[in-house]
Amino acid sequence: MDPVKVGVLGLGTVGGGTVNLLERNRDEITRRAGRPIDIVHAAARHPDRPRTCSTDGIRLTYDAFEVVDDPDIEIVVELIGGDELARELTLRAIDNGKHVVTANKAMIALHGNEIFAKAREKGVSVGFEAAVAGGIPIIKAVREGLVGNRIEWLAGIINGTGNFILTEMLYAGRAFGDVLAEAQRLGYAEADPTFDVEGIDAAHKLTILASIAFGIPLQFDKVYTEGIGQISIEDVTYAQELGFRIKHLGIARREADGIGLRVHPTLLPERQLLANVDGVMNAVMVNADPVGPTLYYGAGAGAEPTASAVVADLVDVVREFTLEPENRVPYLAFHSHFLSDEPIAPIESVNTAYYLRLEAQDEPGVLAEVTRILSEAGISIEAIIQKQPAAGAETVPVILLTHRVLEAQMNSACTQLEALEQVHGSVTRIRVETLA
Amino acid sequence: MDPVKVGVLGLGTVGGGTVNLLERNRDEITRRAGRPIDIVHAAARHPDRPRTCSTDGIRLTYDAFEVVDDPDIEIVVELIGGDELARELTLRAIDNGKHVVTANKAMIALHGNEIFAKAREKGVSVGFEAAVAGGIPIIKAVREGLVGNRIEWLAGIINGTGNFILTEMLYAGRAFGDVLAEAQRLGYAEADPTFDVEGIDAAHKLTILASIAFGIPLQFDKVYTEGIGQISIEDVTYAQELGFRIKHLGIARREADGIGLRVHPTLLPERQLLANVDGVMNAVMVNADPVGPTLYYGAGAGAEPTASAVVADLVDVVREFTLEPENRVPYLAFHSHFLSDEPIAPIESVNTAYYLRLEAQDEPGVLAEVTRILSEAGISIEAIIQKQPAAGAETVPVILLTHRVLEAQMNSACTQLEALEQVHGSVTRIRVETLA
């Protein structure tokens, strides 16, 4: 069969990786897809700059609109990142009747509802496997592999930079800022690492995962997001003493008041598989009826793993060329007229267990006061550790593990704890999940 | 749209689970698939026996051929197990122009080449996601999610009973026979547990995984298979002392002389994710270019997880109804005219590291003899442990870890070791893999 003609927007890390992959594995891909996939037109900001891929046979331009308007192109691969320009180009490509494949999580999380509506109108496919967890085929697993399931919750390590930082803090005992600087040197973290460490990148991905899991529209603005910037080496160490590891998780779960969507540091029991996903690797655990827990692990970023996902989408789109849109896999897993308006549960109504650390004066009766306040707030304590005071310190660290409690109750208890004269500063709070 | 009409062969564990799932999650499935899926005709060996599912609205028969010949049926789900009758029914269903979904790994491993040839001739789909690793969407991940990759190797815990036994030996210190008896009581193992503990079931699954990973025909008879019946509690304990866990793995890897296909007990470093997959759970690790290592984890058996995979296949088949066969996902991932005749490497040409245990007389010079023999065979030693003799014992256990060596070299060295007067009995050999 004739080669499929593809246009690429952006020849940076992922764009270059995609060009290289289609060239290097051309034979394997053709044997599976039944026909070759050729990149024939590409837009790069600086078309004359040296790059990581060969551009032989590719028409190069600096004008991305030239690619989306090229009548020869059947599929546009959007790899420029950012959200506004990417959105504009994607909508124009769709308007021109082209299928789209993208690795852009921000664009899908923020503008996906609009993009899918337009794509539905024009009858084209939009693939976004590369937008979540890089090379792990997690979109495919949830949308298709678990199609018979009612999904109860999912929880994932979906930002490699954050996981690299937490892993180094644990095994090398290094401080947050120190590891972050190294991640930037190694090219894992962005120059502005806000998206990684504050959880915004993870929230984009969680938004997408939650939509395809629960059949709800994309609602990025409703994700509760906490970063890892406040995690200290002490917390990592105390968590380890208690048999836990700290991971930055995105969690989507059916709660009493709707679907809870949250990104925050989380203590996980050390024997959990997710607790053992280290370095820049990603993993997503999904708990569903009837399959039970399943987990998907792999590289969450980087040119090559992301290119793997882009090519998987390209082949899927090619296979669907002649399929009527209503028989394709729906963009958000559920057919649009069946999307649910189930509310997003406010964080105050979410139930989790807690790790608490407070600095208390080293004198009798403090522990009695602390436990009284928690008990009166209806919070059960699972474990308490009171450390020895450091030489010359006037306070001792007290670490508590609680049973599950409503967020609102914990807020009120912490206010009271912080008001105690014997407690100095604020209470450090980290949620605990057993994922059972 | 009209409901899809499905016939089921077999209303045992998985059949009952599938009927229940389609009923319980009917709303979720319809919202995703776009149309309901109805089981309208089912064959059971004893149609009047009480069962785990409701059969309201299902025409029941004891004659499976009546279902495959029913002109109303669009998809036949084969869940009777075994291989000969299942093969006959499947071929007849295909001959009648029906699509087939099966959970039958023995049938696919032994007769898949014939079945897919017939299906290609008749232009029908054959889904077999449920045949490997139960509810884990591993067939989909490898065939579609990694479509752009050149797969280097895969390794999996793909028999839940065997993994349950090894896990209990490790954590509860119980002997093989004791745990096996419990697995049978709990219904994990078959009454005749040969398929589980001798690795035949795992070899069926590995045959299928290797075909879709490497684009080779199904070749069950070429899989090298070793069971776990010889694993002693001592080996489990010594492995742990050395920082390893013993798992029963199926491994398919590109070797110098072709593709190596083998099922055997394996020492894995304890920090490996696969080493931490416990109990009846399954997991498959795939290493591929460009995605790198990915891992897929979940329940490998049982009515509900297997039903999850059956329904995923049903929905895929329904979506493909109107697709020309050449645009469907090929049965064995690669289009049939592109299947490769790459040879299967004989076990003698496979390279692995080894754990060796021998019983030696407690006298000077024995270790020197042992290390001399290994050194002369070109085998490098990574670690040696010589245990204290048990009270009254005339031998001491000597445990060695070697570096990677050609199987043929190890065979010759072991013959020499066993010929030593100071070495009693035979040498226990277990392969070691680092999966890196």
TrEMBL record, chains A, B:
Positions annotated to bind L-homoserine: E190
Stored Pfam families: ACT, Homoserine_dh, NAD_binding_3
GO biological process, one term: threonine biosynthetic process
Enzyme class of the recorded protein, top EC level: oxidoreductase
Domain ACT as annotated: residue spans: 355-432
EC number annotated for this UniProt entry: 1.1.1.3
Name used for this protein in its record: Homoserine dehydrogenase
